Amino acid sequence: MDNAEFLFEQDGPLATVTFNRPEARNAMTWAMYDGLEEACETVDKTPEVRVLILRGAGGKAFVAGTDISQFQTFRTPDDALDYERRLERVIGRLESVTKPTIAAIEGYATGAGAVIALACDLRYCTPDSQIGGPIARTLGNCLSIANYARLMDLLGPARAKELIFRARLVTAQEAGQAGLVNEVVPAERLYARAQEIAREIAGNAPLTLRVTKEAIRRLQVHRRAVDGDDLTVLAYMSEDFREGVAAFLEKRKPTFRGR
Questions:
Q1: For 156-202, how does the pLDDT look when each residue is reduced to its tens digit (9 = 90+)?
Q2: Spans of the chain below 50 pLDDT
Q3: What is the DSSP string of the chain?
């Protein structure tokens, strides 16, 4: 599981995942997604672990999306659908971990990074943290139906639409007021605070935690039984998406034409 880009450690009842690509703001590679999925399996198979904490290395970002260079090979509808299904498999696995999960968000949590954070049970961030998916300004793609649902669960329809329509990031203050994060913590205290809360949770009845988490997950999943493949293909197979990827990698502003 451990490699240079993805670290997993256990300290008594606590397990910690560290996304470790600080030079790329911890943007996710396929190997990192695989590592996250394997970490979830390990946590569920290890009775001593009671809580899982996720964090990013470097102090600048939790996770700044998927590594955009990996999108250059997209040519067919199956490329788009396979990506979203693979991403949903990992995010769904994180969401279904039987132990409580905590995202310790320092800096940016954008794109897939925001999705990973939203799939955790609790979120704690620093005063300079920013969370969101500015895809209408950057890549011109879309979220999956499940990820739109996760966003709506936490923000409601109007705020979710505004976040995507305006391609803006939610500040720590806004995130706290909206209930997107549970608490805003000074950067130097973030991981320690996450550990404090994790240890408090770890001392509570495991079955109560497990049943409560699973009950809420089932209620949420029940409302996501909607087919959105046509929407995914519409966005990812567009000229605008190809332009967005090229512009991102060339560090220029994209020119979107709606086709």
A1: 999 999 999 999 999 999 999 999 999 999 999 999 999 999 999 99
A2: none
A3: --BTTEEEEEETTEEEEEE--GGGTTPBPHHHHHHHHHHHHHHHH-TT--EEEEEESSSSEEEE-B-GGGGGG--SHHHHHHHHHHHHHHHHHHHT-SS-EEEEE-SEEETHHHHHHHHSSEEEE-TT-EEE--TTTTT-----HHHHHHHHHHH-HHHHHHHHHTT-PEEHHHHHHHTSSSEE--GGGHHHHHHHHHHHHHTS-HHHHHHHHHHHHHHHHHTT----HHHHHHHHTSHHHHHHHHHHHTTS-------
